[in-house]
Amino acid sequence: MKLLRILINLTGLAVLIIASYIWIFFSSGTDVKYQSSDYGWADSEMLWKGRDFDSIVFYFHLYKEKCHKPNVVLQRLTDRPNWFEPEHWFNNYRDPKWQVPLAKGDENTNLGYYPRAFTKHCYNSSSSQELIEKVEKQSNDFVRRLSQNT
Q: Which of 142, 131, 26 is closest to 73 using CA atoms?
């Protein structure tokens, strides 16, 4: 009977260790929502789909160029998770995404995506290859500057 209890406890411990490793190695951190400072654009990370901070920065700079908004600033809508939430433990708060200033959203941007697809908006217009190359350079420079500030 004592041996059975020991085996049950060891099995439980093994399951806990395996679950912890799975969580650590397959968790990608917190999905963060962003907006433009003029509330004209918003987007969200979906890390499990590969939509990360670099993608968000690209689309933000695309919005700035397509809508002729050179002075808008990228803002973060998602606050850092509380320390007692497991989600908190798998974030690197030195990552550039956490260096973006926190702000409050409005009724359009709080959802984490704006403008809606297929609505008439400057962001939803087509993009030339030259514009895409320009925006890629701008977004890479932006992320590089944020990385240097950490």
A: 142
Higher pLDDT, 14 or 25: 14
| Amino acid 93: pLDDT | 86
The separation between CA 7 and the C-alpha centre of its own chain, rounded to angstroms, equals: 43
Measured from the Cβ of residue 23, the count of other Cβ atoms closer than 10 Å reads: 12
How far apart are the C-alpha atoms of 139 and 133, rounded to whole Å?
10
Strand order in the sheet with 74-76: 42-44, 33-36, 74-76
**H or E segment at 37?**
none
Judged by average pLDDT, the poorest of 13-27, 67-81, 92-106 is 13-27
